[in-house]
Amino acid sequence: AHKKIPEFSNLIKVEHEENVGRHVRAEKPIKAGDTLVVEDPLAAVLYPNRYGTNCHYCFAKLKNVTACNGCAGVGFCSAECRDTACSSYHKYECKFESLFNGLGCSALNRLALRLVTSHPLEYFKKQRHNLHVDTVSSEFKTAYQSVFSLTGLDDERWPEDVFSRSMMAVCLLKILKAAGYFPGQNSDPDVYSDDEIFIGSLLLRHLNVLQFNAHEVYELLRADKFKIKPCKNNLIGLAVYPKSSYFNHSCHPSIARYNVGRKMVCKSLHPIQKGEEVTDNYGQVFYFKGKADRQRELAARYWFECGCQACSADWPILGQNDKPKWRSKEDSGQLDFLESLYKVGADFMENGDQSQAKDNLLESINGMYDLVSPNYDPLIRAEDKLRTCFNADGTVVYSTSVRITNPQEKRPIDESQFSF
Fold this sequence. Notes:
Helix 7 packs across helix 8 (194-213). The protein has 13 helices and 13 strands. 36% of the residues lie in helices and 15% in strands.
């Protein structure tokens, strides 16, 4: 583990540069398949449409539901999860679920509130004098200070955006007052104490920061216990991971993310040399969507123009680059062998041997990176298959409702073959 950031491997480090801000670089050479991050969220919220299927606290699939003693809207997988939730955030949120829906609160709004309700007022008061936006440092005394100092682009917001977010912060603050979050404070809903104004300012900061730094939580839906495909990622919640938010974006990312419950695991998809930046992906990868569409979506959602290698060189989408660009000496025989390893790995994956699939894919990817440029079609296909294998290492749910989305695969007439 990293000496100063325990969530990180010692293979990576955080640096700061004026043009790119905080970012992650390789401290040592990294191979495909290396585990780079294992991190629990500081706060997480389950999507409301999952209240009947997943535990409200740990996000596990509900088998036997343990009910909340104060409301009928949520369920827990155990008495332990219920008691943990009801002793922290849920005792403040329990009676206001209908109001959240009426206000049109998004999952991001709920997460901004959950960052507060997960801790008592004293937790924030003790840190008050240390809370200042520091977009350079990467080591903080508490995880909350890390979240507070994530990028929120406060100075780039227009008046209407500031106004709407301020109104939502006030609504959430009023809920906290009504829920008794502020012990011994004035009960007048229109009079705010110094502590209440302080927490209101934190809520506004949360709304700004989470717009750019919240991560969706997934589980993998599979139709067959013996074959990885057909499968699809199923969104179940939203969370904030302070340290994992330090990764910048690339349309050809270095890492793949998956969830084990609420925990996030990041693994490398391809080799990374010492000193190279280690990147995540915030939207679409280059091989599924063209540059113009990617740039438009990133500018609208994250307010930046991507300058990654895939964008600057305008790499073509998958299926349009089957001619290798050699890094040094041409070695077609070795490349053919490594491509055959990828195909063997893909066959193992299709037939459910995940371990053999990963072994072959990793050897193929690590080998091809030494020979050819990274936008070579077989290499990209191998990386995409490896990503699917990593997803299968996370939370997996077997369901007959999985739909096949690959147009080259035919949907079976009898869907009963997708059984447990």
